[in-house]
Amino acid sequence: MQQHETPVLQNKKVGLDVYRMELFAPDVAAQARPGQFLHVSVHTKGRGSDCYDPLLRRPLSVHGVDVKRGAVALLYRVVGRGTALLARVKEGELLDVLGPLGRGFSLPPAGSRVVLVAGGMGVAPLYFLAEELLRFGHEVHFLAGARRLEELYLLGDLLALEEKRPSFKPSFATDDGSYGFCGPVTGLLEVLLAAVKVDRAYACGPRQMLREAAGVLARFGVPGEVSLEERMGCGVGACLSCACRVREAGGFSYRRVCADGPVFAAESVDWEDR
Amino acid sequence: MQQHETPVLQNKKVGLDVYRMELFAPDVAAQARPGQFLHVSVHTKGRGSDCYDPLLRRPLSVHGVDVKRGAVALLYRVVGRGTALLARVKEGELLDVLGPLGRGFSLPPAGSRVVLVAGGMGVAPLYFLAEELLRFGHEVHFLAGARRLEELYLLGDLLALEEKRPSFKPSFATDDGSYGFCGPVTGLLEVLLAAVKVDRAYACGPRQMLREAAGVLARFGVPGEVSLEERMGCGVGACLSCACRVREAGGFSYRRVCADGPVFAAESVDWEDR
Amino acid sequence: MAKPSLSVEIAGIKMKNPVAAASGTFGFGLEYAPFVDLNRLGAVFVKGITRYPQPGNPPPRLVETPAGVLNAIGLQNPGVEKFVQEILPALRPYDLPVIVNIAGTTVDDYAFVAASLDGLPGVAGLEINISCPNVRHGGMAFGVDPASAALVVGAVREVTGLPLIVKLTPNVTDIVAVAGAVMEAGADALSMINTLLGMSIDVRRRRPALANITGGLSGPAIRPVAVRAVWEVYRALKVPIVGMGGIATAQDALEFIMAGATAVAVGTANLFNPRATVEVIEGLERFLVEEGIGDIRELIGVAHGERGAR
Amino acid sequence: MAKPSLSVEIAGIKMKNPVAAASGTFGFGLEYAPFVDLNRLGAVFVKGITRYPQPGNPPPRLVETPAGVLNAIGLQNPGVEKFVQEILPALRPYDLPVIVNIAGTTVDDYAFVAASLDGLPGVAGLEINISCPNVRHGGMAFGVDPASAALVVGAVREVTGLPLIVKLTPNVTDIVAVAGAVMEAGADALSMINTLLGMSIDVRRRRPALANITGGLSGPAIRPVAVRAVWEVYRALKVPIVGMGGIATAQDALEFIMAGATAVAVGTANLFNPRATVEVIEGLERFLVEEGIGDIRELIGVAHGERGAR
Ligand SMILES: Cc1cc2nc3c(=O)[nH]c(=O)nc-3n(C[C@H](O)[C@H](O)[C@H](O)COP(=O)(O)OP(=O)(O)OC[C@H]3O[C@@H](n4cnc5c(N)ncnc54)[C@H](O)[C@@H]3O)c2cc1C
Ligand SMILES: Cc1cc2nc3c(=O)[nH]c(=O)nc-3n(C[C@H](O)[C@H](O)[C@H](O)COP(=O)(O)OP(=O)(O)OC[C@H]3O[C@@H](n4cnc5c(N)ncnc54)[C@H](O)[C@@H]3O)c2cc1C
Ligand SMILES: Cc1cc2nc3c(=O)[nH]c(=O)nc-3n(C[C@H](O)[C@H](O)[C@H](O)COP(=O)(O)O)c2cc1C
Ligand SMILES: Cc1cc2nc3c(=O)[nH]c(=O)nc-3n(C[C@H](O)[C@H](O)[C@H](O)COP(=O)(O)O)c2cc1C
Ligand code: FES
Ligand code: FES
Predict the structure, then answer these.
(1) What are the tens digits of pLDDT across the range D53-67?
(2) Given A94, A111, B89, B210, which residue has the most CB atoms within 10 angstroms?
(3) Cβ contact, residue pair B52, D220, below 8 Å
């Protein structure tokens, strides 16, 4: 992990309030593993850029890498001031990023059948993970859920990937039934687990969804990993701001989402920590 | 005076750290008088623009107007964070400005011979004043001073104006003698006043220069007006932040640079106020 | 849904909505008339008024800091006599409660100003600024000591029937103690917070940036300190509070209201956004509609939980 | 011109330059080793250490505010025993004074931790965090009362020969009084300021944004308050001070030094800029060269004027 001043290659609106940004960062592209993130300054570099509001960097998952071009992709939704500032960044401007940070997903033994469960923006890191898993020859079931069709962010990309890779099997859920399964993506997970034997699961999305997913996985006895979010200060493990509670022999302890996570074993997370 | 959301027509580097910005603001263009200023937000409008650092607007003199095009020009030097942010603004973005604010220069009786004394960025409002004075048929001596040739900001424009208008007589002073008179612009003022009878003087520039100019004018008995700078809060006369001390019968009182000024009678200013 | 109700009452002063302009940042109101319809405001706290005219401090009086400003205006004002004769009449045409902020350096000064304003048409109430230096007691502010603070308030209470709002300074170890003392002494409500004591140094000149050396810090930077002060005092005393300190948006105002403020005041935000007061009012109304709340008073103190569960 | 001298000494601790990392914002230093050469720092104040391991507060522990952050970490730390066994040795390879920040909720706790660290190789000094709640006295922080503060410092002084730096809280009416009391009680130097007490409310949830309700405000937002505290204490007592509170650049550090600080610490700025400490050091050096100053110590307190005229 390091600090990089990266030129922005592209910053394009790709959906409802969602942007895809590509940074030129060969070191990051070479090192980043799925589930890791970058800690991104939302103020572009240059004279007059030493702005203290908003003050903190924003954590964004690595969404993809192109090692040959030295490019790293981020996929983010504008939800507040920081991401709104990012959305205004133009090609050629410089962004200061730290990373790759955190512990990513652990890869399964060869020839596994896995399921990826994405809620909302959870697709950002899981798409990267899917690519990686396919590269190693695993069978990948990808469940993507959202409130409605418009919020199924990578729908096109996922369907395209299905065309290309027979071992990639996406399915979709929307709360309002506007596309795919009508209901939560965890419902889709139950359907899948009831039908086929899955070796391992990976989930990323809103906390409530992760919690439910962890419950389903426990019931079916499928080991899984979840990627958590928490408000971050440093992003590098120093300030202890990003605590999440994990179960331990004889109690619990607080772990740092930035350095001990963001990926944790689904069964270790103490969902009652707030 | 009002609040306007103005599209930026142009924002161009025109000299060493100096930019010329043109705003589309027909009301301002129609109303603004030389010596008045705009109070400019340095954060462009848009999602993510509610930034509190830097917090305050920046006062910038009206440098020119084009009533037909509804355009207002500003000329500013990048000296800190606020002006650095302004320099990054792009054509088409929206800036929030208040104005025109303050009391401008008072025009002389018909057929006057006047002298304008500009130090550094003081040329910004005085160029506008010169245009206005010429329009009314006055004889205008324009003395522009700077540390060195590179900082004689409107040199080209002033020389061009001289070509066009016989009643416009510019001369220049540089501290290092790299162009024109070698020495302070107030030296040039002394030379001029010793040579010709002048009815009225107008000065804008660094405080020390204004102070010296006021001294010279007093010695020669020429009435004059100076445009002062002070750090501003509101810009509209409410917060009393922008005090400058003026002499009064029986003492002194603090006046508001933003509302009672920025233009004051040269002899009224109490230069000892700090 | 019907239009939600925004009106509140504090210290007996009826406000159309809970949003006032804070003292010293809005002049006498008239300076902002070109930018906002003054009739829309809940109230205006005018610039601090003293017994005698005050010239104010030498410049520089203001310096910008991260998300804030430091000011040392020095209570420049025309004195109570001129205020009554010239300014008050000019405010009469507006349908707007005018709360006069009063200041002094002796208890007598405060009482004199309060008495001069008692019973005057157009004065809705007084805000007592107890952050001024107590000249009789070594220059420490009246407001940092519960006993001195109570002394001022008691003296003012004796000479006026006007609603009294006492403005607390955050530069104390225990704001609840001061709050309790001034309520005992006859305050009808509290306003909080005044500025935090701060300073800035001009490193090129190697001198304090303000001529006055220290100044008062205000603006968004101090909002967390202000919300905490309102929270603590409301929790301990459940008294009516006008909350202020860094309010620039409706969200900010809601933080204060949910912490326990009945009304709020917008201060420094007026400087960078002359329409801040009106934008806060509009934002509050929008929030109530979005959340399906019929009356803003339902939100007062809800973050404490007792009434918050819904 | 010769390279200017940046080295200073505080409380007997020799620093290569006046720039340290502030407690709690830099972990145990090791977390930042990928970003800065730890050997370049003047010193590091490590995360607060207590007698027993502390789990810390539930999340959320951090919320962003204008130009600042509120934190309520809750002193999460492995306890002094594990610190001595595991962390201290890992710091030995660096040429870097390690100052251990100690905390507790009883006077005994402080003394225990101090005694456990006394005489250990690799501990350059102690920073006593007296902003912790005094459980014996109703939970008010030790540091808000001169007598309680002195009690803690006296007890620590008895059990250790290590240099003692006492860290003052700004949440007091009179910081000079606390400063005087702890110097009397045996402190070698003061560090200031700790965080301002603040809070923030999540208006959608209608609840405090931090699980702990209140938190400590830090970052650029509080710099004016911190500079003022250093100024006041230096003016009154002329004692050695480590200044902190919102330092992100060399300019900021110079404000503190000119106000009277011998050394400074960079806190929250590490979070948004991991290279902040080193950038401040480089900026100080540049400033000295530009201004033709041979020794940074010439600038200590110059803004007070006595030594400032040159
Ligand atoms: C490890 C990690 C990876 C992430 N990856 C992505 C990604 O790939 N794409 C993406 O769109 N988002 C991702 N996020 C979430 C993203 O960091 C937040 O959306 C962003 O920081 C919000 O910043 P803002 O200034 O726009 O919003 P703010 O104005 O700061 O806040 C808006 C809302 O978002 C919440 N929020 C703010 N910061 C966080 C945070 N760190 N974690 C959780 N909630 C937060 C706030 O509580 C508030 O409700 C990730 C978060 C983490 C911790
Ligand atoms: C009525 C008026 C008209 C002006 N017209 C022009 C103009 O036409 N063109 C132009 O380039 N500049 C003009 N100025 C000066 C301009 O406002 C400042 O240069 C600008 O505000 C600096 O902002 P900043 O954020 O870049 O610098 P900052 O980082 O805020 O400060 C940099 C330096 O500028 C000084 N400074 C900041 N604000 C002011 C101020 N309001 N007055 C004086 N000094 C200040 C600071 O003390 C500091 O030394 C005018 C000022 C006034 C009061
Ligand atoms: C320029 C300025 C002048 C002020 N003058 C007064 C005053 O005369 N009397 C007073 O009680 N408070 C005064 N205040 C304090 C404000 O009313 C308010 O309490 C404080 O600024 C915090 O609110 P804010 O952060 O919204 O500005 C002044 C503040 C500023 C910025
Ligand atoms: C996340 C965080 C954790 C902190 N932990 C401690 C601590 O353990 N002990 C302590 O004395 N101060 C602690 N502080 C206070 C800082 O050391 C410093 O005094 C304060 O933040 C002001 O400096 P700053 O504005 O540069 O951060 C902490 C501050 C932050 C932001
Ligand atoms: S964000 Fe600082 S430890 Fe995780
Ligand atoms: S800037 Fe507010 S009165 Fe002039």
Answers:
(1) 999 999 999 999 999
(2) B210
(3) no
Q: What is the complex's ipTM, to 2 decimals?
A: 0.96
Q: Considering only residues 240 to 269 of chain B, which have any Cβ-Cβ distance to chain D shorter than 8 Å?
A: none
Model confidence at A2: pLDDT above 90: no
Q: Which two tokens stand for residue D208?
A: 């405090």
Residue A163 contacts C, CB cutoff 8 Å = no
**Residue D201 covered by a domain:** no
Domain count for chain C, please give it.
1
> Would residue C127 count as lying in a domain?
yes
Q: What CATH number is associated with residue A157? A: 3.40.50.80
Q: Using CA atoms, how far apart are residues D284 and A215, in angstroms rounded to an integer?
A: 55
What pTM was estimated for this model as a whole? 0.96
CB of A77 shorter than 6 A to ligand 1: yes
- What gap in Å lies between CA B55 and CA B53, rounded to an integer? 5
How close A244 gets to chain C, by Cα (Å)?
A: 24
Check: CB of residue A1 under 8 Å from CB of residue A101.
Answer: yes
Q: Which residue blocks in C96-219 are alpha helix, DSSP H?
A: 107-117, 146-159, 175-184
Pocket-testing residue among B98, B229, B236, B254, ligand 6, by greatest number of atoms within 8 A of Cβ: B236
**D199 contacts D214 by C-beta, under 8 angstroms:** yes
Residue A82 in domain: yes
Residue B249 lies in a domain: no
User: Which sequence positions of D are flagged as catalytic?
Assistant: 132
Residues 6 or more apart whose CB falls under 8 angstroms from that of A202 comprise: A105, A114, A115, A116, A117, A126, A129, A224, A225, A226, A227
Cα separation of B21 and B89, whole Å? Answer: 9
C120 occurs within a structural domain: yes
Question: What distance lies between CA C119 and its chain's CA centroid?
Answer: 22
Query: Is residue B95 domain-resident?
Result: yes
Tell me how far the alpha carbon of residue A214 is from its chain's centroid. 16
pLDDT digits 0-9 by tens, B91-138: 999 999 999 999 999 999 989 999 999 999 999 999 999 999 999 999
C-alpha distances out from residue B67 to A185, B30, B40, B99, B197, Å: 61, 6, 20, 15, 34
Tokens describing residue A141: 């079931």
Q: Is C76 on the interface with B (CB under 8 A)?
A: yes
Q: What is the pLDDT of residues C6-32, one digit of tens each?
A: 999 999 999 999 999 999 999 999 999
**CATH number of the domain residue B13 falls in:** 2.40.30.10
Q: Among B258, B241, B212, which residue's Cα sits nearest to residue B98?
A: B258
Q: What range defines the domain where residue B17 resides?
A: 3-101
In a domain, B120, yes or no: yes
Unique residue bearing structure tokens 């005050």: C54
DSSP B209: H
A contact test, residue of B79, B88, B94 with most A CBs within 10 A: B88
For position D266, which CATH number holds? 3.20.20.70
With respect to residue D101, please indicate whether it lies within any of the assigned structural domains: yes
Structural domains in chain A (count): 2
Query: How many helices and strands in chain B, by DSSP H and E?
Result: 6, 16
Q: What is the pLDDT of residues D236-277, one digit of tens each?
A: 999 999 999 999 999 999 999 999 999 999 999 999 999 999
Q: SS3 string of C195-263?
A: CEEEECEECCCCEECCCCCEEEEECHHHHHHHHHHHHHHHHHHCCCEEEECCCCCHHHHHHHHHHCCCE
